[in-house]
Specification:
InterPro entries: Cu_Am_Ox_Cu-bd (IPR049947), Cu_amine_oxidase (IPR000269), Cu_amine_oxidase_C (IPR015798), Cu_amine_oxidase_C_sf (IPR036460), Cu_amine_oxidase_N-reg (IPR016182), Cu_amine_oxidase_N2 (IPR015800), Cu_amine_oxidase_N3 (IPR015802)
Shape: globular
Largest sheet: 10 strands, antiparallel
Keywords: Copper, Disulfide bond, Membrane, Metal-binding, Oxidoreductase, TPQ, Transmembrane, Transmembrane helix
Radius of gyration: 27 Å
Strand content: 35-45%
CATH architecture of the largest domain: Distorted Sandwich
CATH class of the largest domain: Mainly Beta
Transmembrane segments: 7-28
Family: Belongs to the copper/topaquinone oxidase family.
Distance between the termini: 61 Å
GO molecular function: copper ion binding; primary methylamine oxidase activity; quinone binding
Length: 723
């Protein structure tokens, strides 16, 4: 069989390739809306509002948009199509690249100095527009800055650290082609009863462990059977791994140790709705939808500036981080002036280590942002299921390996959420014989992105509340990464203690693993001079002769002077609050204004700190870090994370032990999950979520939503089911 024939037969089944297929366009069908401003057979309103939908409603019928004429309006707006094309033109005539154009792995805005951005006002000239380019040529990483106004390269570094840039679509497809040309692979699949036409392959990243990864860019290839199911993840060909040299395009290692392990069956693995042949074993749930007869309360100006209630922030898509929030400001509840809260927030890096020492698994320790990128792996969101009606959708514009712009449509959605919760309430029956019942609805604004990195789906929510709180939530779904086994039930296992994960189906092991997501949070509370304070709760014993209490709690505040003072491991029995304050800005009572990070459910990495995956992911050694601001320190695993050795990580930067009191500082928070798989995770996992919050502390003079209005029946439409 010729290589080209194999490529055509098998390339389409590569999951990562589908996810990274950046040249695909995904126009959405026109959405229908409830319309309580007109007479309809199924929707009436006691107080009908005749409101003509504004521009933001028109944007919801979001067919593929032409971005070719976009222009930047804000210093932080992403590069436009025209700017990307100009960068490519500049690089094409750049002398070091004249013999051969490099593969472009990343091309994004080289952001202006943050002090310029804070000082900029609408109507001012934009700061110089620049692009940061990361390319690969002859096995060397090139990091360049292109000044778009000058039309020239103004900075160029080669191999600034260990590691390589994120993978490109071409990297993955070429590795697949090499693997599928391997006669040994074809023989191994056939020996297991897998037809070549049923073969699906994926490219796990190799990590870094020493000699095998030294001085060459490699990737692993592992395969599955998609016969009778679209969920090939549940049908692994166990014990079969190829190692491919990405630059030489050759196989450097072939390992086949699992021929005695059967390929799990396809029964009950399908997850697509149309492929289900059994009805759900539950009573049906009637459709639910939040309706807004006046339209949404938020606006999106100039493509990226979001205004809602008392919040204003900049929102954009990013090739590596996926979703970025910048210049988040909230109105003062007394003066109405906008005050700074956060300059920039985003998911900086992932760490997903699997707990199986076998030769086919030990290397699985993914850094999804730095190895694959969260932007290109974000497929269009599913209306009414990923995002509710009346959502606003935002596209991402990235680059392919040839430097040309590509579109990822509808990858971010923005919507208001109301789930029947209260933002505050109180009832009282002891006031002048009157019964008081006061409550206010909690309506929030959510910016959401979902990305699918291979088998796993990650949903990111940045949720803004009117009381000044920001909630950052990460939700996990998708498929387990599973291993094959000869065993169909636990009774066949002689030494169950030696298993690296439980049986989740016949012949299928769900391998134990972790997920860690580290967030970069550049907090600028009322300005850039901020301080980190550990507000520790300590037990005090009561003195003899005092009331019958034996103990009570007191607060002790510890101001972090240096980065060493601000490395925090969360402890349930040594509780603290963690404040970012501005010591120069005080409330009327003299308290410094601030925000605190509020942890929710979390997990810590238990790996040995000298374990190679943990060395590369040393940013997960603590749940909280605080570093001095440095515009080059954004990616917790380093600028070049693929096969990196851990020499350019958050942990390394923090060793400089810079002064951080009353300085421009960055808070880093790591959210973690331990995942012990179970049968309910098969064949697709129900959502599991965790979150943390950024909450005002003495930032406002009083409850900022004290005067917010309740909801009244007359303001809301009443929708009834028709016959």
């Amino acid at each position: 069989m010729q290589t080209g024939t194999k490529y055509l037969r098998f390339a389409f089944i590569l999951c990562i390739a589908l996810l990274l297929l950046a040249c695909s366009w995904y126009p959405l069908k026109e959405q229908r809306f409830f319309d309580c401003s007109q007479s309809t057979p199924w929707c009436t309103s006691k107080n009908r509002i005749h409101a003509k939908p504004g521009p933001i409603l028109d944007a919801q019928i979001h067919k593929t948009k032409d971005h070719s004429s976009d222009t930047p309006h804000h210093p932080l707006d992403p590069l436009t199509v025209q700017e990307i094309n100009k960068v490519r033109t500049v690089l094409s005539s750049y002398p070091p690249f004249l013999p051969s154009f490099p593969a472009i792995h990343s091309l994004s805005l080289d952001e202006p100095d943050k002090y310029q951005v804070w000082a900029w006002r609408k109507g001012d000239p934009l700061p110089a527009r620049k692009a940061q380019v990361i390319g690969l040529l002859n096995g060397q990483s090139h990091v360049l800055v292109v000044d778009l106004s000058l039309g020239q390269v103004t900075a160029h570094a080669i191999n600034p650290t260990s590691g390589y840039p994120t993978l490109t679509m071409d990297d993955i497809l070429e590795a697949l082609q090499v693997a599928l040309s391997c006669e040994e692979l074809n023989k191994s699949a056939t020996a297991r009863g897998v037809s070549l036409s049923d073969l699906s392959c994926l490219p796990p990243s190799p990590g870094w462990f020493g000699l095998e990864e030294e001085d060459r860019r490699i990737i692993k290839i592992q395969c599955y059977s998609h016969r009778d199911t679209s969920n090939f993840y549940m049908r692994p060909i166990a014990g079969l791994t190829l190692t491919v040299d990405l630059d030489r395009k050759e196989i450097v290692k072939f390992s086949d140790t699992g021929r005695r392990i059967p390929v799990p069956r396809a029964a009950d693995t399908e997850y697509r709705y149309k492929a289900q042949d059994k009805r759900a074993e539950m009573e049906p749930i009637n459709p639910i939808s939040l309706e807004q007869p006046k339209g949404p309360s938020f606006t999106v100006k100039d493509g990226h500036i979001v205004k809602w209630a008392n919040w204003v922030f900049h929102l954009k898509a990013d090739q590596r981080a996926g979703l970025v929030i910048s210049k988040a400001m909230v109105k003062d509840s007394e003066t109405g002036t906008l005050r700074g809260v956060m300059y920039k927030g985003f998911a900086s890096e992932f760490f997903v280590p699997y707990m199986e020492p076998d030769e086919h698994w030990y290397f699985k320790s993914y850094m999804d942002a730095g190895e694959f990128g969260l932007g290109p792996t974000a497929l269009p969101l599913v209306p009414l299921n990923d995002c509710p009606r009346y959502s606003y959708y935002m596209d991402g514009i990235f680059v392919s390996s040839d430097g040309k712009p590509i579109l990822r449509p509808n990858m971010i959605c923005l919507f208001e959420r109301y789930a029947g919760d209260s933002s505050w309430r109180h009832s009282d029956m002891f006031f002048n014989d009157l019964e008081i019942r006061e409550a206010r609805p909690k309506v929030t604004l959510v910016a959401r992105m979902a990305t699918t990195v291979g088998n796993y789906d990650y949903i990111f929510d940045w949720e803004f509340q009117t009381d000044g709180l920001i909630r950052i939530k990460v939700s996990l779904s998708g498929m387990l990464m599973v291993d094959g086994t000869p065993h169909e039930n636990v009774y066949q296992i002689s030494n169950i203690k030696e298993m690296t994960g439980p049986l989740v189906s016949e012949n299928v092991i769900g391998v134990l693993h972790d997920h860690f997501i580290t967030f970069h949070l550049d907090m600028d509370i009322d300005d850039t001079n901020n301080t980190f304070v550990n507000v520790n709760l300590v037990k005090e014993d009561t003195l003899p002769g005092k009331p019958p209490r034996k103990s009570y709690l007191k607060v002790r505040r510890h101001v972090a002077k240096t980065e060493d003072d601000a490395r925090i491991k969360l402890k349930l029995y040594d509780p603290s609050e963690f404040h970012i304050i501005n010591p120069s800005r005080r409330s009327r009572l003299g308290n410094p204004t601030g925000y605190k990070v509020v942890p929710r459910g979390n997990a810590a990495s238990l790996l040995d700190h000298l374990d190679p995956p943990q060395l590369r992911a040393a940013f997960t050694n603590n749940q909280i870090w605080v570093t001095r601001y440095n515009r080059s320190e954004q990616w917790a695993a380093g600028l070049l994370a693929y096969q990196s050795r851990g020499d350019d990580t958050l942990a390394v930067w923090s060793l400089r032990n810079r002064a951080i009191e009353n300085k421009d500082i960055v808070l880093w928070y790591t959210l973690g999950f331990h995942h012990i798989p179970c049968q309910e995770d098969f064949p697709i996992m129900p959502i599991v979520s965790s979150s943390f919050e950024l909450k005002p502390v003495n930032f406002f003079e009083r409850n900022p939503i004290l005067r917010s209005a309740p909801m009244f029946e007359k303001d809301l439409p009443v929708c009834r089911q028709t016959a």
